[in-house]
Amino acid sequence: MKILKDKNICDINGFQAIGISCGIKKGQKKDLSILYSQYPATAAAVFTTNKVKAAPVLVSMKHIESECTRAVVINSGNANACTGQKGFEDAVTMAVKTAKCLSINPEEVLVASTGIIGVPLPMDRIEKGIETACSALCSGGEDGAAEAIMTTDTFPKKITVETIIGNKPVQISGIAKGSGMIHPNMATMLAFIVTDANIAKPMLAKALRESVQDSYNMISVDGDTSTNDMVIALANGTAGNPFIKEDGEDYETFKKAFDFVNQELAKMIAKDGEGATKLIEVSVSHAASKEDAKTCAKSVISSNLVKTAFFGSDANWGRILCAMGYSGANFDPEKVDISFQSHAGIIQVVENGMGVPFSEEEALKILKEDHIIVLIDLKDGKYHAAAWGCDLSYEYVKINGCYRT
């Protein structure tokens, strides 16, 4: 597998994309994206676990059942959530309008929205925007789709990779958004993955379900789970690889590259947490079970006390052990080792559940870096898990204190 640094969704065979400004956001910022497969594609999706689901989520949950999916229409700046029957009708209209412009069926269009909750969509601008975007769809080059789905994000999140399946090059490309209201079980985040892989819909759905568990469901910024989050994957089969219809070597090769794309996008989301200054990675090793490893990692990365300690570059390992202790995971506290690692070095702070002497000066040097890894060794088995998050800063409060206004 190799990363294609200069490629994006528009470079995947048979896919086109565009991001434009249609007037939802102020200042001519891009706020509408269209992703389109020129060939029939299979699709899979994972949706928010929040009981309060936005209108586009409800529409897409219905349309994902179609055997063929050709397009996704996404707007940012307005979540179209808690907007009643009119909001649902507006989400349907977005699908119908996109389908008409692309000469496909409405059921072949998925809909996504992100932004402020409880405000009606400006449908006159959106419908005109859909017309403009569909007529400007492009293949190759910079499409702006990743930028147009952003809200409080500070940078577009995208990645493209290539792997070989059955002697055929297969490419996978993804874009994502999210920086606040992020918590395990997804949150106000959107991710869209396209691939030219030739894969059956049930196998694509299986790959996505499994991949989400080890990527987007292992990140946390602030502990909130949103109304709009979704991850969508489209595969149009144009790579010509042997048809992947069951488990086997070809599926595992695809899944490895697919997982890499999702994990890299998840890490970008964690790194871009609102007001964040550091990407925090929690790596739990030698757990008695995979679930114990994941539970410990997610509990530590979700702890606000841990997050604030990292913002202050404070080697407060007690907060880490505390978060593990209330996680519900099975482990022996008297076996736990904890170390901090960054580009500045590595330092052990806990051995067998007890603090060990360490240089505060060296620890401060390590924790001042912008990517810190917390190494937790449970010494209790063979399983490993990783979770990603960020520090919690003064700026987070500032951003979210005036987000709606």
- Share of helix among residues? 25-40%
Output the radius of gyration. 22 Å
CATH superfamily annotation of the largest domain: L-amino peptidase D-ALA esterase/amidase
The profile of the biggest β sheet is: 9 strands, mixed
Strand content: 25-35%
Principal-axes shape call? globular
CATH class descriptor name of the largest domain: Alpha Beta
N-end to C-end Cα span? 45 Å
The CATH architecture designation of the largest domain is 4-Layer Sandwich
Number of helices: 11
Number of strands: 16
Mean pLDDT: 92
Q: Helix and strand succession?
A: EEEHEHEHHEEEHEEHEHHHEEEHEEH
How many structural domains in the coordinates? 2
Low-confidence segments, ≥5 residues, pLDDT <50?
180-187
Structural class: alpha+beta
What is the fold-level CATH name, i.e. the topology of the largest domain? L-amino peptidase D-ALA esterase/amidase
Explain what the structure shows.
It is globular and about 70 Å long. The protein folds into two domains: about 1-270, L-amino peptidase D-ALA esterase/amidase (4-Layer Sandwich), CATH 3.60.70; about 280-400, ArgJ beta chain, C-terminal domain (Ubiquitin-like (UB roll), Roll). Strands 1, 2, 3, 4, 5, 6, 7, 8 and 10 form a nine-stranded mixed β-sheet that branches. The chain has a seven-stranded mixed β-sheet with strand order 9-16-11-15-12-13-14, sandwiched between helices. The chain is α+β, with helices and mostly antiparallel strands. It has helices at about 55-65, 85-100, 125-135, 145-150, 200-215, 250-270, 290-300, 305-310, 315-325, 360-365, 395-400; strands at about 1-5, 15-20, 30-45, 70-80, 110-115, 155-165, 170-175, 190-195, 220, 230-235, 280-285, 335-340, 345-350, 355, 370-375, 385-390. It is about 30% helix and about 30% strand.
